[in-house]
Amino acid sequence: MQQLVVPVVVGTLASFGAASGSLPRGVSPDFAKFYESKDSFACITQPSIKLDVKQVNDNSCDCPDGSDEPGTSACAHLDPLSPPQPLPGSPTGSTNTTNALPGFWCVNKGHIGGYVPFAYVNDGACDYELCCDGSEEYSGVGGVKCPNKCAEIGKEYRRIEEERRKSLEQAGAARAELIRQAKQAKRNAETTIVNLKGEIAHLELKRIELQKKYDETERVERRKVVKAGAGGGKLAELLEQSKMRVEELRDTLELVVEQRNELRTKVADLEGILKRFKEEYNPNFNDEGVKQAVKSWEDYAARIANEHSEIISDAEVRDVLIEDGEMNGINWKDFEPSDDDVADTDIIYKLEAYAPRFILDLFYKQMAALRQWLVSNGILADSGTTTTESPAVKAARDALSAVDREITSKTSALKNEEDDLEKDYGPDDVFRALKGKCVSTDAGEYTYELCWFQKTMQKSKKGHGNTNMGDFARIGREMSDEEERLDGKGLGTGERMVLRYENGQSCWNGPRRRTDVWLACAEKEELWRVSESEKCVYKMEVGTPAACEPQGPAAAPSAKKGKDEL
Ligand code: MAN
């Protein structure tokens, strides 16, 4: 992997190659105007304090803002780039003023000019990483001579910069390719959604048809069962026997009524005889047998008088005895099947028009039980199967269930696709192209794996199984302040995207595992390193073109930021 991070020289491109001209030592072009007067020097932040020009760089800190010493370390205690140094003899050694100058200006001709902290000026050490021309050290007597190395340092810098630029270009091209793939993946998902919607709509229509067919088949089958009974089965036999039995009962009733009428006449005759006997007997004969008979009659007459037994009237008897027909009694023809008949059970199917589904389900369950009971009691013909459902009904129901299952599965696939389309896949949707792809690295006894937008895994190399280190939850951002790495495979400094993976396998006696996946711009996907900062909390550092800043003119402002990032 090419190194994408190079040490950045402190400085500004605007100052590149600026010559100090007649300015005092250490003054940058940005502050030149304060040092142009030949007569006097006014402290930059407090111009009312005026000094002789000879006092500039005389190694004595005269201005409270240190601006009179741009080329020495006399005011280094005010240096904003280094901790304040106490002045000899000052009571606290601290001051609330800061240097008006950002540092000693090192021209670095042939490379890039930059500021050096005043504390480094004339300290006897050549600070080439900041001042490649060595001008921060006095080269005169008593000073250290630092030869100018700007030519070679500048050349190396430009070589690295060129490498960096190429690397950036390649990473940018890789990112553009990812974006192209992400767009394609999105288009595919949109097409899938349209197709699924069409298929579901088609299946819904099919379902309506199949439901109709099922209802109709079931209705016809039930009717067949009833008709089969009426035409020759047990129900017809029951009907026939009922009719015969009713006729027999009617004949018997006729006889009984006749006999009753005869007996009524006989009872009336006997009661008349006994009544007369009681009225006409002679009590003076003192005949015990006669007296007993009269007493029994009196008791009988008293009991009869108190009895209110229901007497069936002759009219009622006549009604019952009238022959059955269309206008009277039972019209048996009503019960005989004909081709235009609606089956008895049709009344049941009409329930479907208004009854709620759960009632129907309950009802059909009860009906099935009833039908079973009728079959086992010999009233309905057995269909020959263990269930009461005919093969035709079963086939219709199976077809309906199959289409139901298909609708459920396609609806769930549609929901997944729609949810996925709404998901945050980062800037320019770029991570959509990586979804489902994995990168891994070996570390110690494990192989660690990152599956983009899915999960992170810790796989034992000793065959102890895999551990889920978290499922993808969301994209976040955090500041990184890592040292640049020589191989470039590091996060560096600046804001970085962090993918959060949470709710992994539970840690023994601890929380569920989670992983923060820190991303840095790189030419290709690579899992650089994994660390476990605290138990079961992992950090993955990953390079990917997807994390690069967008390049090109449209992205100019952030491309400048990219200099820091890369
Ligand atoms: C395993 C690994 C480690 C983890 C411990 C916690 O050994 O998953 O990363 O720290 O379990 O018990």
Automatic annotation (TrEMBL):
InterPro entries hit by this protein: Gtb1-like, Man6P_isomerase_rcpt-bd_dom_sf, MRH_dom, PRKCSH, PRKCSH_N
Region (Disordered): 73-94, 546-566
Alphabetically ordered keywords of this record: Coiled coil, Disulfide bond, Endoplasmic reticulum, Signal
PROSITE patterns found in the cross-reference section: MRH
A Gene Ontology cellular-component term: glucosidase II complex
Pfam families recorded: PRKCSH-like, PRKCSH_1
Coiled coil ranges: 157-280
Domain MRH, residue spans: 436-550
GO-annotated biological processes: N-glycan processing
PANTHER family hit by this protein: GLUCOSIDASE 2 SUBUNIT BETA (PTHR12630:SF1), N-LINKED OLIGOSACCHARIDE PROCESSING (PTHR12630)
Protein name: Glucosidase 2 subunit beta
Species assigned in the record: Pseudallescheria apiosperma
